[in-house]
C-alpha cells in the first residue's frame, strides 16, 4: 500500500475502512451499492440497484435505473445551508502563470442557476 500523502490524515475513509468497504462491495455488490445509494437524495427512490449484462455484443450496465434524482440538488443545493461559504471547487489552470480559482457553494449555486436560466431561455426543458 502507498503511504498516505500529507493532508489526507483526516479523510473520511481510513485505509482500514476502505479495505472493509471494498471487501463488502465484492462480497455483495447489490447490498453495498444499495447502501451507498441511500446517501444521496432521490426524487423517486430506486427499487433496483444494478442491472448488468456482459454478453458479447449486448453489454449493458445500468445503475439505479428506475430512480430519479436531481444531480444539482445533491451536489450543490443541499450543501448551501451549512457549507455555503466553503470552497466547492478548486479550478487549477493549465498555465502556471494563471492563478487558481476557488469557487464556494454559494458562488457555484449562482452560476448553476444562471446557466439553468440560459438553457430555459433557449427552450431546453427538463429531461
Q: Major β-sheet, in short?
A: 2 strands, antiparallel
- The total domain count is 2
Number of strands: 4
- Percent in helix: 25-40%
Low-pLDDT windows of residues: none
Give the secondary structure arrangement, pairings included.
Blueprint: H1 15-27, H2 29-37, E1 50-53, E2 60-63, H3 71-75, H4 80-83, E3 87-91, E4 101-104, H5 105-121
Antiparallel strand pairs: 1-2, 3-4
Structural features, described:
With 127 residues, this protein is of the alpha+beta class. The protein folds into two domains: 15-69, no CATH class; 72-121, no CATH class. It has helices spanning 15-27, 29-37, 71-75, 80-83, 105-121, and strands at 50-53, 60-63, 87-91, 101-104. β1 (50-53) and β2 (60-63) form a beta hairpin. α1 (15-27) crosses α2. The radius of gyration is 19 Å and the shape is extended.
Question: Which tags fit this structure?
Answer:
two-stranded antiparallel sheet; about 130 residues; alpha+beta; 2 domains; extended; two-stranded antiparallel ribbon
What is shown here, in short?
With 127 residues, this protein is of the alpha+beta class. It is 38% helix and 13% strand.
Amino acid at each position: 500500500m502507498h503511504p498516505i500523502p500529507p493532508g489526507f490524515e483526516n479523510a473520511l475513509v481510513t485505509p482500514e475502512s476502505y479495505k472493509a468497504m471494498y471487501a463488502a462491495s465484492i462480497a455483495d455488490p447489490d447490498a453495498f451499492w444499495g447502501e451507498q445509494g441511500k446517501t444521496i437524495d432521490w426524487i423517486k427512490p430506486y427499487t433496483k440497484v444494478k442491472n448488468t449484462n456482459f454478453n458479447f455484443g449486448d453489454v449493458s450496465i445500468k445503475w439505479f435505473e428506475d430512480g430519479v434524482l436531481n444531480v444539482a440538488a445533491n451536489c450543490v443545493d443541499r450543501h448551501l445551508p451549512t457549507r455555503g461559504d466553503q470552497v466547492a471547487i478548486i479550478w487549477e489552470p493549465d498555465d502556471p502563470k494563471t492563478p487558481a480559482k476557488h469557487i464556494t457553494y454559494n458562488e457555484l449555486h449562482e452560476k448553476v442557476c444562471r446557466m439553468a436560466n440560459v438553457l430555459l431561455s433557449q427552450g431546453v426543458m427538463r429531461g
